[in-house]
Amino acid sequence: MASYDDFDALFSAAPKVTPIGEHGDAVTSGSNSVNQGIVPQRNSVPPDEASVSNVEAHTSEYRPSITQQDISDDHLKKHVVMDGAQCGSSPNGMVNDFAIECRNLYKAFGNKIAVNNLSMLVPVGSFFGVVGPNGAGKTTTLSMATGLLTPDHGQVLVRGIDLWAEPDKAHPILGILPDGLRTFDRLNGRELVTYCAMLRGMDKATISDRVDQLLKVLDLWDAGTTVVADYSAGMKKKINLACALVHSPDVLVLDEPFEAVDPISARVIQRLLRHFVEQGGTVILSSHVMATVEQLCSHVAIIHEGTVLAQGSLDEVRRGESLDDRFAHLVGAEMNDEELSWLKPSSR
Fold it and tell me: Which SS3 state, helix, strand or coil, does residue 188 take?
């Protein structure tokens, strides 16, 4: 099992990654189907040294323009006040010190409204859980909050930077583990993490050291030369987490990071994420497992039918109940006592 020395090595002070394109080099590349959350930029190409023979790289046109509403601070605060308590205060007590601000996000797919005027504030240095029923809009919200999906309306700020107006400045701050998006699975594990690091503009020596450390910490060392297409679901989750971590982001956004992961690996990932937050990072994760959210998170938002029902510190949201009970009360879940009389062993 990985030790805290391993985690310290991963998150040790290192020169901040300079976004490609900031000094005239090639800008960041990748498809928005790539499972590392690297959003394609207009007319972008990968750096020459990042070319891998068995990768069919493809890009799509980046669309930065969206309709945005003029939103005052008072209007935004109105959406994040719960039971008279101002939500979203940072752990260090600073006001409006947010890692991510979602302001009145709206997204519809045809006649289906997935996210409806949603506002959410994630304090810097918090371990922030996003929970909600299936189809509540969690993945859609996180996709818009990280640049993987264009909102129909609204605004996202990443450490105060408008995600859609200045993507080159916002994206290097983020490490993203989306749920269910395609990746370059004909690369082996080591090649995939290396490729993602090169897209981030990192130097070769730093890449080599970090890839080695990540593969060891996440128990993927022996699988490093195996193509990702042959990985189990849990191994794919871990290698994509390595891709999200390799450039040492300020903010990690993880959609269902523990799904299909074995208990031992889950404990390692939890320790790694806790250590990341202790070092000043911010983690945002979605999960259906309330016990995991209660165990890990300092803050939580409950989403239902595309809106935030409650958000704030864990204690503010729970109001003296377990998170499971509070969730059921807010969402209005009712137990169906109807029995399936036909459900019995066929031999009886």
Answer: strand
**For residues 174 and 37, is the Cβ–Cβ distance under 8 A?**
yes
Question: CB of 261 within 8 A of CB of 269?
Answer: yes
Contact 252/11 with Cβ under 8 angstroms?
no
List, in order, residues 6 or more apart from 5 with CB less than 8 Å away: none
Measured CA to CA, the distance from residue 203 to residue 200 in angstroms comes to 9
Please spell the DSSP secondary structure of 109-145, one letter per residue. Answer: ETTEEEEEEEEEEEETT-EEEEE--TTSSHHHHHHHH
Q: Tell me what pLDDT residue 183 has.
A: 85
pLDDT at 241: 95
Q: Are 229 and 221 in contact (CB under 8 A)?
A: no
Looking at residue 227, the DSSP 8-state letter turns out to be B
| Contact between 151 and 142 (Cβ < 8 Å) | no
- H or E segment at 187? none
Weakly modelled stretches of the chain, pLDDT under 50: 4, 13-96
Quick one: which of 135, 343, 163 has its CA closest to 253?
A: 163
Order the strands of the 98-109 sheet from edge to edge.
Answer: 112-123, 98-109, 153-158, 161-162
| Per-residue pLDDT reduced to its tens digit, 30-87 | 333 333 444 433 333 333 343 333 333 332 332 332 233 333 444 444 434 333 233 3
Distance CA 271, CA 240 (A): 17
d(CA 191, CA 214): 13
Cβ neighbours of residue 291 under 8 Å, at least 6 residues apart? 324
Judge residue 287's burial from the number of C-beta atoms within 10 Å of its C-beta, 0-12 exposed, 13-18 middle, 19 or more buried. buried
| Relative orientation angle of helices 263-278 and 233-245, to the nearest 10 degrees | 10
Q: Residue 300 is inside which H or E element, if any?
A: strand 299-304
Cα separation, 130 vs 20, whole angstroms: 31
